[in-house]
Design goal:
mainly alpha
Amino acid sequence: MDLKRVTNEDKLQLCRKYYLGGFALLPFLWLVNSVWFFREAFMKEPFEQQKQIRTYVIRSVIGTIIWIGIIITWVTIFQLYRADWGETADRMSFIIPKGIP
């Protein structure tokens, strides 16, 4: 979709849908929202809906950073303690390594 062809009201509605979609455990939508609407929120000449779009973009960036932190934390903990967790960790793994690291 070319944002140049969309009205400012439609941009606001689309930005809002992507922002709310991120709460449905789809944080990728927050990343897309942040990238796609960044220019509209911060680099375009002021328009009526820009303040609300800017709010959604900032919140999407914050949500994306939080989710990235959670994922990195989980991967790090899992990699460090997988062998200690025994069968529980084996059941969570898609590939079960043989032997003890």
